[in-house]
Every structure is written in structure tokens, then in C-alpha cells.
Design a protein that fits this description.
The complex is a heterodimer of chains A (209) and B (501). Chain A has 209 residues and is of the alpha+beta class. In chain A, 30% of the residues lie in helices and 19% in strands. A five-stranded antiparallel β-sheet of chain A has the order 2-1-4-5-6, covered by helices on one side. Chain A is extended. Chain B is 54% helix and 15% strand. Chain B is built from 21 helices and 14 strands. Classes of the chains: A alpha+beta (209), B alpha+beta (501).
Chain lengths: 209, 501
């Protein structure tokens, strides 16, 4: 009996691992279920030439702006020097983070919450001495800001935009006049959610990992 | 059973492979190390448990990202703190080997559950690997040696007057849990190889180069330095993928085991120095202990015994330290130890909840009242909320370097002094996204006069453009400049010196 249980465990466990491997190799339903995270080994699958940070900003009734992340009681830095809210590449959880800050703080009524993506070219991450060795021009870092989401005071999304990388990629494509013309001709009569799905380029930095 | 024999084709090799018996030293080492590594992760998170894992804070369940909302219940604040406290305790007792199997099962359930509740700052791929490790350890008998449980068992046997050396010897068990852990490691590496096969930029060095410049993990100054040498990344990319594919097939014995584990240790140390990862390598090293065979332990034991016989004081002290620890363990039976374990679990868990309540990390009951929000300067915020700016021309290029030879489409060397007739390669590396571009690399003399204009199209999918020059003898020796122009602007320039042959 013990042997049968052991054989069953071996077969089931290895079967699950091999299923995950096959799913990943063939890119078949890798995101079908949260448990797939535990059997699809896609470490460092994406990359980007731009560093990425998130700003969560609340706007009160008075029109004043407030910093909602990190929270006023301090930030948590899980994998290095940057706080937790920067590890949300899909801006899925910014609303919860904002509401948590609002719950434990005193403030005027908040009307809108902006989730803003800040990006800059990663070459500017080089320390000054390495920059001086590799570049003849002065180091002139520049950040781009892009409103990713606008949330209501209850954290529900009121507006959502493409991620900065996808937005810029689209702009690059739209420089092609023929493509732009065809795209405009192909505009649908009805706006349906299913038509705005943009495949992720996998280009954003993930924490590891 | 020797691993050499376990793969003997004359025997029923598959049965032997999984069911040969051994003293589970390897799993015991993994059992001591893996929970200890996870303590490095979970202890700093304990004070943040309410914020990270509870409905009183800002839990970020992984399932939401997959569209499975409410997949797992999010606990209340005190419950989350209690579970995090219990996890820290059971990781500790797993490592020490006290009520080992129960500790490992509780650790597995709580570690996986809490990780699933925080995909922002707790769950990573090393968490997934560690969860597999805990699962396999909880199926194994890794607590039967080098543990408090085994110490208590042997002491109880001695006290009961048992002199049978066979009974006092470490017990032997089927090897299959260790095989599962070895196969799991190999399959993880194979999966990682598939990821790389799906990423062409891995082989051209671009993916790795940008990760070396990324600041989302710990500091990685060696990585930043190495980003100047993409040819080394091309070579290491092919070595890495070969190692990842071969591991599961050849890492089982002999020199192949040494080679595969040696490359693994080098690779993971590389992720520490080049990418700033710490816990991921430690998790991998701890489960590498599953490649520690019984014969290895016997060889190590014989070696240390010889050293001790030659009068090595350090080993004598180490042995006496072990005996002192043994004496410090209270004189209780295994059953009494289990009861004490239950009491400790209750005391520590409830104690942890009480301590966290007093510390009030989110300031819910602070004397000064609720926290004030930090007001932002509208002059800084309004531009952030405006129209998204297009990418500057200068940001579309990553680097411009000059050398004389290429390896795998990247520049192999850096030079700025050339003789007449020498090959010159100027390479401009681009940052995606960019549109289809016309990029010129023009040769100017020291006075700025344009001598040669060379341009080429870089379509939106290209990550680099290279220009080959051979300077003829009609050019006088002296200083020249290679100037990159794009979008009607000068992007950068490099000086080169031409000397007579």
C-alpha cells in the first residue's frame, strides 16, 4: 500500500511538472489559472530598455494633490531599494494600495486617484564614473510620465491607458502613413472591451525574478 | 544503495532509481537549509504582515492578475499576523527538526498561502521553487537524521536500555523524495531554457545587458560594469542554455554531477554579483543538497575522522559543541516533546499577534491621530498628468562604440587608434521601442569637415546597426570623428586616431 501511494505521488507530481513544462514550451494556456505560476518557469522572460516606477497620486475636492504611495507610516522595500508599489507592472493593485493609505490617514474627500508611470532609459542608471568612461556627451537623464489609470475615490477604474511601452510602440507604428490610414479605416462601429486587449510585450521589468 | 548501482541497467533501474534505500542525509541538509533561507525572507515581512497579507491592509492576491478574483480568502489583520508568526515558528522548527513533518507541512501550507496573497512583494519564482522544496521535504524523511526528533528518539532508545546498534543507527528510507527534488531542479532549469529559447534577445546579449542595468533588485555594480562587454554575455548565454538543458539528463553522478552543480553554483553566484539577487541563489543552493549522496557523507565523515585523529582542535571543539547542545535539550520523551511543541505553537502565535498589536506598525491607534497625507507640489504633478511625451531622439540609442571585430553581432573589442587599411567597426545599439529610422554614421575630420556619409535603415525590430570602414591611405594621419545622426540631429560622436602604417 505504501509503495502504491509512493508510486502515485511520483507519477502525479512529475506529471504536473511535465504538464507545466509542455504548457510553457508550447505557450499553451500558461496563464489559464493562478496555479500555473507554480509550474511555468519563465524567470526573466521580459526585458525593457527603460526603467519603470509608479506614482499613486490622489486629488482632493480642493484640487490639491497628495502622495498615496508609499504610505505615511513608511514603505516596505522587498527586493532592494525601491518600495513595494513599484512592483506592480500591470497597475492591478494600485487602487488597493491607495485605499489602504486613505483608510489610515486624515484627508479631505478624495475625488480621483491617478496611477502614473514614470520611465527613463536604463542607460542613465549607470553611475557617473562609468557614464564618463562610456559616453562623450554629458549625462542628461530624462523621465517620461504617462497616466496609466484614473481611479475613483472607491478605487474603481474610471479610465485605463496602455502601458507606456505599448503606447510608445503604437506611436512608432503610427508614423507609417499607410498603416495609420488602414487603422483608421478599420475602426469598429462599436467599442467592445474584447477589442482593446493588447498582448503584453513582456518587456517590463519584473522583480526577479 | 550506491547511486552508481541504482542506475545499473542490469537491474530494474527505474525501481532502483526511486526505491533504493538510503539514510536521507541529503534531504536532512536541504531540510536544515531551505527553511533557514526562507526565514531570511519571512522574518523581515512579519512586522508588515497586516499590510501585506490581510484585508486590514493592502493584500495583492496573485489570482487577481489571472482574473480569478476571490480565489483565496484574504484573512483579517490579526489572523494574518498569527499565520505569519506561526510560519516563522514552523520554519524554525523545520530547520531544527522538531516535530519535523508537521512543521514542514504547516510551513508549506502557510508559505504558499501568504505568498499567493502578495504578488507585489512576497511571491516570486524563488517562492514557487521553495514551495516545491517544502512539499517534497514534507513527503521525505529528512527529519530522521541530524534533527531534534532523531536525537530524542535515540536518547529514548538508550534510556530504555536498547543496545542494539542497528536500532541506534540512522534509519533507511526509499530514495524517491530526493529523486523528486533532483528532477524538480532539472525541470525548472529546462523550463528556464525554454524561456530563453522564446527570447531571441537573450542570445544577442540585449536582454541580459538591460537586466544588468536594471535597478529593481539589490545593488549590482559588477553587472553595470559588465554591460560594456556584450560579447561576454553572448558566450555566457550559450553556456547557460547548454547547462540548463543538459542538467536534468546528466547531473546524476560522477564528474557530470560535479560539472553541472559547479556550473549551477557559478550561475547563481553570477545572479548575485551581476543582478543583485540574494535569496534566489540561496534557495537553489539549499535544494542542491538533494545531490548529496549517502556515500558523499560517509566520505566526508571518514575525512573529518582522520583529521580529528591527527589532533585537529577545531573538529574536537565542534564535536564537544554538538554534545553540549545535546545536553541542553531537556530530558523529555518524544511524546512529551510533541506536547511541548503544541504549547510553544500556541504561546508564540498568540504572543506574536499581541506584540504586533502593541507595535501598531500602520499607526491605526497612534496617539497623534490619523496620519496626515503628504501634499504634492501642483507644479510637479500637473506635467505628470498631461499628454505623454514622445521619446527623445537621444533616448532611442543605448550606446555607440568603435572596435575592429564582432562576435555574435556585437562588438568584441573597443579601439580608437587605427592604421591605414585596418578594419573599423562602428556599432550603434538601440533602445526599443523606436520607429523605422535612418541612422547615419559620418566620418568627419578634426576640423569638422564631412568626409564620408554612411547611412542605413534600422527598422523597428532592429536593436543595433553596424558600419564598417576601411580608411584609405589618401587620408592623412591624425584625428577623425565618427558622428551618429538620426532624426536630423547629431546624437553622439567618437574620436578615432589614424596613424600611418
Amino acid at each position: 500500500m505504501k509503495r502504491i501511494l509512493a508510486v502515485g505521488t511520483i507519477v502525479v507530481y512529475l506529471g504536473v511538472l511535465v504538464a507545466g513544462l509542455g504548457s510553457h514550451a508550447l505557450n499553451y494556456r500558461t496563464g489559464a489559472h493562478p496555479t500555473m505560476y507554480f509550474i511555468v518557469w519563465d524567470m526573466f522572460c521580459g526585458w525593457s530598455a527603460y526603467e519603470d516606477r509608479t506614482h499613486i497620486i490622489g486629488q482632493g475636492e480642493s484640487g490639491r494633490y497628495y502622495d498615496l504611495a508609499p504610505a505615511p507610516w513608511g514603505d516596505y522595500r522587498p527586493f532592494g531599494d525601491i518600495p513595494r508599489h513599484h512592483y506592480d507592472p500591470f497597475a492591478m493593485h494600485a487602487g488597493v494600495l491607495a485605499l489602504n493609505t486613505l483608510r489610515y490617514s486624515e484627508h479631505e474627500p478624495i475625488q480621483q486617484i491617478f496611477v502614473v508611470q514614470e520611465t527613463w532609459a536604463k542607460k542613465f542608471n549607470l553611475p557617473d564614473e562609468l557614464w564618463a568612461e562610456r559616453y562623450t556627451e554629458p549625462k542628461n537623464p530624462h523621465s517620461y510620465f504617462h497616466v496609466r489609470k484614473i481611479l475613483g475615490p472607491d478605487g474603481m477604474a474610471q479610465a485605463s491607458n496602455l502601458a507606456w511601452f505599448d503606447y510608445q510602440s503604437k506611436l512608432c507604428l503610427s508614423d507609417n502613413p499607410r498603416l495609420a490610414a488602414d487603422s483608421n479605416r478599420g475602426r469598429p462601429y462599436l467599442e467592445m472591451q474584447s477589442q482593446v486587449q493588447v498582448s503584453d510585450t513582456g518587456s517590463r521589468p519584473a522583480p526577479f525574478q | 544503495m550506491s547511486d552508481q548501482h541504482s542506475l545499473n541497467p542490469k537491474k530494474n533501474s527505474l525501481t532502483d532509481f526511486f526505491f533504493a534505500e538510503e539514510v536521507p542525509y541529503g534531504m536532512a541538509v536541504a531540510r536544515m537549509l531551505l527553511p533557514a533561507v526562507l526565514l531570511l525572507v519571512m522574518v523581515p515581512r512579519w512586522i508588515h504582515a497586516r499590510e501585506l497579507f490581510s484585508m486590514d491592509g493592502a493584500a495583492a492576491p496573485l489570482a487577481d492578475n489571472y482574473g480569478y478574483f476571490d480565489f483565496l480568502p484574504v484573512p483579517s489583520g490579526p489572523m494574518a499576523v498569527g499565520l505569519a508568526t506561526l510560519l516563522v515558528l514552523t520554519l524554525l522548527t523545520s530547520s531544527l527538526g522538531w516535530c519535523t513533518r508537521l512543521s514542514l507541512v504547516v510551513s508549506l501550507v502557510l508559505y504558499t498561502y501568504l505568498n499567493l496573497l502578495d504578488c507585489l512583494s512576497t511571491l516570486t519564482k524563488y517562492s514557487a521553487i521553495a514551495a516545491h522544496g517544502l512539499l517534497i521535504l514534507s513527503l521525505s524523511n529528512g527529519g530522521s537524521v541530524w534533527s531534534i526528533d532523531s536525537f530524542l528518539r535515540r536518547r529514548a532508545l538508550r534510556r530504555s536500555g536498547t543496545e542494539d546498534p542497528e536500532l541506534l543507527k540512522p534509519q533507511r528510507y526509499a530514495v524517491w523524495p530526493r529523486r523528486l527534488m533532483q528532477l524538480m531542479i532539472g525541470i525548472v532549469y529546462l523550463g528556464a531554457a525554454f524561456t530563453k529559447m522564446h527570447t531571441p534577445a537573450f542570445f544577442s546579449s540585449d536582454q541580459m545587458l538591460h537586466w544588468l542595468l536594471t535597478n529593481v533588485n539589490n545593488s549590482n555594480p559588477f553587472g553595470e560594469y559588465l554591460s560594456y562587454y556584450p560579447a561576454t554575455l553572448v558566450v555566457s548565454a550559450y553556456i547557460t542554455i547548454l547547462w540548463e538543458v543538459l542538467f536534468v539528463f546528466i547531473a546524476w553522478r560522477g564528474w557530470n554531477r560535479v560539472l553541472m552543480l559547479g556550473l549551477g553554483i557559478t550561475f547563481h553566484l553570477g545572479t548575485t554579483f551581476l543582478l543583485g539577487l540574494y535569496i534566489f541563489p540561496l534557495v537553489c543552493f539549499s535544494i542542491y543538497a538533494s545531490f548529496l549522496y549517502e556515500e558523499d557523507v560517509q566520505r566526508f565523515a571518514a575525512f573529518f575522522k582522520r583529521l580529528e585523529q591527527r589532533g585537529n582542535r577545531l573538529l574536537t571543539k565542534f564535536r564537544s559543541l554538538g554534545e553540549s547542545i545535546g545536553r541542553a535539550i531537556p530530558d523529555v520523551s518524544p511524546r512529551q516533546a510533541s506536547l511541548v511543541f503544541g504549547v510553544v505553537v500556541l504561546l508564540v502565535t498568540f504572543g506574536g499577534v499581541g506584540v504586533e498589536y502593541q507595535l501598531d506598525p500602520m499607526g491605526a491607534r497612534r496617539a497623534d491621530g490619523a496620519w496626515p497625507l503628504k501634499e504634492l507640489d501642483p507644479a510637479k504633478v500637473v506635467p505628470m498628468l498631461g499628454q505623454t511625451e514622445r521619446i527623445r531622439e537621444s533616448d532611442k540609442y543605448l550606446s555607440f562604440n568603435i572596435g575592429s571585430d564582432m562576435l555574435g553581432d556585437v562588438l568584441m573589442d573597443r579601439k580608437n587608434v587605427f592604421r591605414h587599411g585596418d578594419p573599423i567597426v562602428a556599432q550603434c545599439t538601440l533602445n526599443p521601442p523606436h520607429e523605422d529610422m535612418w541612422i547615419e554614421c559620418n566620418l568627419h575630420d578634426a576640423d569638422g569637415h564631412l568626409i564620408d556619409r554612411v547611412g542605413q535603415v534600422a527598422d523597428r525590430s532592429m536593436l543595433r546597426v553596424s558600419y564598417a570602414f576601411v580608411l584609405p591611405e589618401s587620408l592623412l594621419p591624425g584625428q577623425y570623428f565618427l558622428v551618429v545622426r538620426s532624426g536630423g540631429q547629431e546624437i553622439t560622436r567618437r574620436a578615432i586616431t589614424l596613424v600611418a602604417r
